[in-house]
Design a protein that fits this description.
This protein is of the alpha/beta class and 425 residues long. It has a domain of 285 residues: Divalent-metal-dependent TIM barrel enzymes (TIM Barrel). Helix content is 47%, strand content 10%. Strand 3, helix 5 and strand 4 form a beta-alpha-beta unit. Helix 3 crosses helix 14. Manganese (II) ion binds next to loops. One of its GO terms (molecular function) is metal ion binding. InterPro entries: L-rhamnose_isomerase, L_rhamnose_iso, Xyl_isomerase-like_sf, Xyl_isomerase-like_TIM-brl.
């Protein structure tokens, strides 16, 4: 088994970090912020890693696998463990079925040995599994054929059963259902069929589970999708019941859509279930979180931190990464993204909420937006590094990973793979 331990910080590194941290602490104290409390929240922050993210994703055109690609879910869990050991921020893995289907006892054993747990289960009715009786070519939960719908429902129930054996507490459902031509599908009937199928799944959802539905405006269907936007997603959650919540994948919106406002609306009506974090420039690009527009990521967390002040104990939206890595080492991208998400959270914690509310009440637009930017501009790296130090993670995870030689080692153990499917969801 390939396990990587985070290298201990040298005394020089630790002393330098302490000086940076103290200097930042002094600045924050002048703003009335106690840095240790922020560090503790940073240390408690967690985001789940997608099992499909540790392999090279590829695009619709090609896939260029790197060395040491994981061969199966057990290799994937080892790579996920590296990410968590070095960042201290990713204790759980989100599985995709049937890609990760395996004996639950073996999965539990492996994850336990690696110090990992399982996050939301993801079903797959957007592609045909080998040996599958009926095809999802023309849809799954909304298909015109009741036999296909029944097969898709049964698959989701199978995901729940496996998740229960693994200690998961949520099922995420994303369907590629939709149409490519005007007139191809009756928009109302398709949504009715989808809702009826989802009701069957929801009926069998364990009492302590959440059902997360994920909207996406286009692709693979390019004219219409059945669950195309947050409004439809909200309708689904409202129709199904209180344990049905909306999942927001940052890449599943039209360019320039105000995602933080969608987040605020879903929070206000108790239907925000969680996130698939990534970044994009044009569409569902699945780029690394915070790599293109870190300010947007910060603005999403600004809504979450604001909501936490008023929310009850049930407010704990799921944090998951959903990216596709084409030109980087997936482990490096996932570590970097986990830290960028953590950074956005910490920056949002630094917003002077009292001052912001005062400026909003007084209609002082300039000072209100300046208050947000003051928090966003704060270099919180010493806080993140100190949180990692306290957890025995690496001060500089990417540097530690490169020095470890992990990729070269697993490349020797895992035969090179060619081609293969994507995993862009
Ligand atoms: Mn997603």
């Amino acid at each position: 088994m390939s396990v990587l331990e985070a290298p201990a910080a040298t005394s020089v590194e630790e002393a330098e970090l302490r000086r940076d941290y103290d200097a930042l602490g002094e600045r924050l104290a002048r703003r009335g912020v106690a840095i240790d409390a922020i560090r503790d929240k940073a240390a408690a922050f967690a985001v789940a890693v997608p099992s499909w993210g540790v392999g090279t994703g590829g695009t619709r055109f090609a896939r260029f696998p790197g060395p040491g690609e994981p061969r199966d879910i057990f290799d994937k869990l080892e790579d996920c463990a590296v990410i968590h050991r070095l960042t201290g921020a990713t204790p759980r893995v989100s599985l995709h079925i049937p890609w990760d289907k395996a004996d639950p006892a073996a999965l539990r054993q492996k994850a336990g040995d690696l110090g990992l747990g399982f996050d939301a289960m993801n079903s797959n009715t957007f592609s045909d599994a080998p040996g599958q009786k009926l095809s999802y070519k023309f849809g799954s939960l909304s298909h015109t054929d009741p036999g296909v719908r029944a097969q898709a429902v049964a698959h989701n129930l199978e995901c729940i059963a496996l998740g229960q054996a693994l200690g998961s507490k949520a099922l995420t459902v994303w369907v590629g259902d939709g149409s490519n031509f005007p007139g191809q599908s009756n928009l109302t009937r398709a949504f009715e069929r989808y809702l009826d199928a989802m009701r069957e799944i929801y009926r069998d959802l364990p009492d302590d589970w959440r059902l997360l539905t994920e909207h996406k405006m286009y692709e693979p269907a390019f004219y219409s999708t059945v669950v195309q936007d947050w409004g439809t997603n909200y309708l689904i959650a409202r129709e199904l019941g209180e344990r049905a919540l909306c999942l927001v994948d940052l890449g599943h919106h039209a360019p320039n859509v105000n995602i933080e406002m969608i987040v605020a609306r879903l929070i206000q009506f108790g239907k925000l279930g969680g996130f698939h974090f990534n970044d994009s420039k044009y569409g569902d690009d699945d780029l690394d979180a915070g790599s293109v527009d870190p300010y947007r990521l910060f603005l999403v967390f600004n809504e979450l931190v604001d909501a936490e002040r008023h929310a009850g104990p049930d407010f704990h939206p799921a944090h998951m990464i959903d990216q596709s890595h084409n030109v980087t080492d997936p482990i490096e991208s996932l570590m970097t993204s986990a830290m960028e998400i953590q950074r956005a959270h910490v920056q949002a914690l630094l917003v002077d909420r009292g001052a912001l509310e005062g400026f909003q009440e007084a209609n002082d637009a300039l000072m209100a937006t300046t208050t947000l930017r003051q928090a966003f501009r704060t270099d919180v790296e010493p806080i993140l590094a100190m949180a990692r130090l306290g957890k025995g993670a690496a001060l500089d995870p990417v540097l530690a990973y490169r020095r470890s030689g992990y990729r070269a080692r697993v490349a020797g153990e895992r035969p090179a793979v060619t081609g293969g499917g994507g995993g862009i969801v």
